[in-house]
Amino acid sequence: MSDQDALAQALAVAEAQAAEAEAELRAAPASAGRGHAPGAADALVSITAYPNGPLLVRGPFEILTPDGTVIPPGRKTVALCRCGVSTLKPFCDGSHKAVRFRTEAEPPDNAPPALD
Amino acid sequence: MQIPQSRGPVSAALIDLLRSSDSDSSTEAALAAALHERTAVALATTDDLLLDDDLQTALFMAYELRYSGLDGVDDAWEWHPDVLSFCADVEVDFEIALRERASVPELPEPGVENVATALFEFTGADSGPSVSRYLAKKATDEQAREFLILRSIYQLKEADPHTWAIPRIRSRAKAALVEIQADEYGGGRFDRMHSELFARTMRGVGLDASYGHYIDQVPAITLTSSNMMTMFGTHRRLRGAIAGHLAAFEMTSSQPNRLYGNGFRRLGYDKNVTYYFDEHVEADAVHEQIAARDLAGSLATDEPELLEDVFFGAAAGLFIDGLAGHQQIDAWTAGVSALRTPATAGLPA
Ligand code: FES
Fold first, then answer.
1. What is the pTM of this model?
2. CA-based nearest distance B6→chain A, Å
């Protein structure tokens, strides 16, 4: 086996292990009810909208294709493209800066009107 | 790592001192005095401390005691007063030179948003030389290897200089730095540590990935770049600068890494070699957001007296890496090696 093959194999093994570890990670907190068991904070997924940039997602999330295939996140915190020009979608690759992507200064006021 | 070769009287004197552990105290005192004297002369007469092979090599050696140590050198030297006072002597002038030459932009009002916006503007306007475009389009296989050799001085200890800042800062900024660094260290998985991914890339093109292997082949500016980070990282006083340095580094990294990856693909290398760069396109797009707002923005807001140093660290990083990039491109376009001596390691015999 050449060095290159050995490296390729090592890379494949590492990726399989990562997928396994990530699957375990996803399975674990799902059973913890929101706001109850210790560690419940970990069960919440948070999405932070970074101005003029991507959405950062933290927590026990999974990203799927429409047919349900898992897209490996590769890291704990991911940045999802919302400018549309990333070449790594759904992930951000920093291209939003080159196209001067701008988000609104304030989040929309989408609370329903108060009842009379 | 191995002890570097001396590049002049100061580095030679430091090597003599570090090797003198078994000597009697009068010999040691004489060696320390020689180091002190030669350092004073070198600092007074150097043309440019930022490009000074001898002084930067000596400082790199003294700093290396804070990382992985030097082969055959007693680790106790790290905190030895003679070594610390040598570092302090050089650091005074080093910091002055960086503050004089790196142009800090107009400072924003404190506030997370203001700081982040100003950092994005500042780093976005950076018109440094484009080593990444050169790699993507023109570099020969030999130049691509030289690029890896030059990078190896920092990348084989990637993230370490910024990690010094973790115990030195608090609150949101600390959590942000830990989040970035954890990812740099592969989320706790050895094979995903960025330094390890870089080693894999080096081995993939036939280079030796042992830490510090190519130390004697890199020009002073490469050592200066690493020394700057260590100086910022290991002085609590400069915690603003190391945070700003990391922010600027991350904010100017995604797209260049894509181009580096493309360059190695163009030269016929596969994923084993390009993975390091491809990984950084995605990772640094995450890190730059966290670094600009949650780290640098929060730090400058919680400790407004650090605001200026956040921008100083960012400016110094871009300035030094710009100098290094110019040297590389000038050498390559002139058809000569960017290394001190041509790389021979890893080439077929
Ligand atoms: S949001 Fe970053 S590339 Fe689209």
1. 0.88
2. 35
- Quote the pLDDT of residue A30: 40
**Of residues B278, B284, B221, B220, the one with CA closest to residue B249:** B284
Closest residue to A78, CB basis, from B117, B200, B286: B286
Q: Write the DSSP string, B223-252.
A: HHHHHHHHHHHH-GGGHHHHHHHHHHHHHT
Q: Alpha helix (H) ranges present in B79-219?
A: 81-101, 112-124, 131-137, 141-155, 160-163, 171-184, 194-204
pLDDT surpassing 70 at residue B210:
yes
Q: Which domains does chain B have, with CATH numbers?
A: 9-101 (no CATH), 112-333 (1.20.910.10)
Q: Does B271 touch chain A (CB under 8 A)?
A: yes
Furthest C-alpha separation in chain B:
59
Whether A97 contacts chain B with CB within 8 A = yes
Dig out the tokens for B166 from the structure. 């973790």
Which residues are bridge partners to A48 per DSSP? A56
Return the pLDDT at B344.
46
* Spatial distance between the Cα atoms of B96 and B336, rounded to a whole number of angstroms: 32
Question: Cβ–Cβ of A97/B290 closer than 8 Å?
Answer: no
Q: Which of B259, B289, B295, B298 to mutate to test the interface with A (most CBs of A within 10 A)?
A: B289
- B248 CB within 8 Å of a chain A CB: no
CB contact under 8 A, A54 and B285: yes
Q: For ligand 1, say whether the CB of A20 is within 6 Å of any of its atoms.
A: no
Q: What does the pLDDT look like over A14-44, one tens digit per residue?
A: 555 555 555 554 444 443 333 344 455 567 9
| Chain centroid, CA B16 distance in Å | 25
| Per-residue pLDDT at A34 | 39
Task: Please name the residue of chain B whose CA is at the shortest distance from the CA of residue A79.
Answer: B286
Q: Does residue B121 belong to the interface with chain A, where contact is any CB pair within 8 Å?
A: no
Domain edges within chain A:
3-98
